[in-house]
């Protein structure tokens, strides 16, 4: 008898999601939104910690190094969890670790030390790394292979719902509660007064993260009790016993489509993180104003990102994903260069518009790189999540550029990153059918 999860790969009439996976698909969408909240609540922290602890942009950019560095460190362990147990086990493990990291913001706010906050961020992001390594391929297996790219783009379209919530929380609960005192004024304050101001500011940082921990607990419980078909969640004992990491790595690296996909993902995440992390600095340098008012433009960026995700998912019904990837990466680089050469109101809106270009990149690179990997998909997924290290490395370079040349010139960094993504898109157009 034919398996109920079998469908013609390229059939237009094939179901987008298998009927017995719909509830699981809907619940996983909440995970995509959840890590969007965490990531984009974290972006403004570079500016926040720079002010609270009176440090350079490079030093405060260690926030992103801790966050995305955790993604790099935990992706391979996540792949072993998925291979040994199941995608569902990976999702639950990731959510549990993220809950611990979010709760750690409470003792961090009491200690009032930068290192403690970095440690809490690392634990939070470690959980999200496992979650993302598990959820992305899980979504891809929930329907016909021919619609995997569109299905992943649809699920990822709910990620910017979370990003908008994250920026909104930062803009309403964190940024307005920063004391307006400058670095010079803080340096001249009595130690007791400075300590009191810092305690209030760090308490504002802690509040939304601890609140998020309780939301993640609810999501964890719902996913724990969700029913997943045994065919999609059972452990293949023979496959587990035959795991050979070295051989798997060799097969993955032998595939140009995958190998260069990891490189492209590194620079895609780098471009995204750089663009959003330093939007506030760019706006303040060109238009002036407070951190809270400048954060409005980051919110506009993420609204555009949200709308564009759904638009791009629709366009993929008419155009090859690789073609769209190439065009939007080139446009993203052009917008960065415009912002550098024409600073001011139009430059700010160029930075905001970059989010439309970013909207389809992560899931599209992900699905192109994993196409046809078969049993190597779980470890292939881990490699693509490890590529998120780009979000740890490149913001440090852009932060150092800001310290030396200013926020305007620093957007040359994401401009270069987009060109690498464009090159992968053009490679994929010529060498793949995706």
From TrEMBL:
<dbReference type="InterPro" id="IPR005275">
    <property type="entry name" value="Lfuc_symporter_FucP"/>
</dbReference>
<feature type="transmembrane region" description="Helical">
    <location>
        <begin position="347"/>
        <end position="370"/>
    </location>
</feature>
<feature type="transmembrane region" description="Helical">
    <location>
        <begin position="408"/>
        <end position="427"/>
    </location>
</feature>
<keyword id="KW-1003">Cell membrane</keyword>
<keyword id="KW-1133">Transmembrane helix</keyword>
<feature type="transmembrane region" description="Helical">
    <location>
        <begin position="89"/>
        <end position="108"/>
    </location>
</feature>
<protein>
    <submittedName>
        <fullName>MFS transporter</fullName>
    </submittedName>
</protein>
<feature type="transmembrane region" description="Helical">
    <location>
        <begin position="206"/>
        <end position="226"/>
    </location>
</feature>
<dbReference type="InterPro" id="IPR050375">
    <property type="entry name" value="MFS_TsgA-like"/>
</dbReference>
<dbReference type="InterPro" id="IPR036259">
    <property type="entry name" value="MFS_trans_sf"/>
</dbReference>
<feature type="transmembrane region" description="Helical">
    <location>
        <begin position="61"/>
        <end position="82"/>
    </location>
</feature>
<feature type="transmembrane region" description="Helical">
    <location>
        <begin position="298"/>
        <end position="315"/>
    </location>
</feature>
<keyword id="KW-0812">Transmembrane</keyword>
<feature type="transmembrane region" description="Helical">
    <location>
        <begin position="21"/>
        <end position="41"/>
    </location>
</feature>
<dbReference type="InterPro" id="IPR011701">
    <property type="entry name" value="MFS"/>
</dbReference>
<feature type="transmembrane region" description="Helical">
    <location>
        <begin position="322"/>
        <end position="341"/>
    </location>
</feature>
<feature type="transmembrane region" description="Helical">
    <location>
        <begin position="382"/>
        <end position="402"/>
    </location>
</feature>
<feature type="transmembrane region" description="Helical">
    <location>
        <begin position="114"/>
        <end position="131"/>
    </location>
</feature>
<keyword id="KW-0472">Membrane</keyword>
<feature type="transmembrane region" description="Helical">
    <location>
        <begin position="260"/>
        <end position="278"/>
    </location>
</feature>
<feature type="transmembrane region" description="Helical">
    <location>
        <begin position="152"/>
        <end position="175"/>
    </location>
</feature>
<dbReference type="Pfam" id="PF07690">
    <property type="entry name" value="MFS_1"/>
</dbReference>
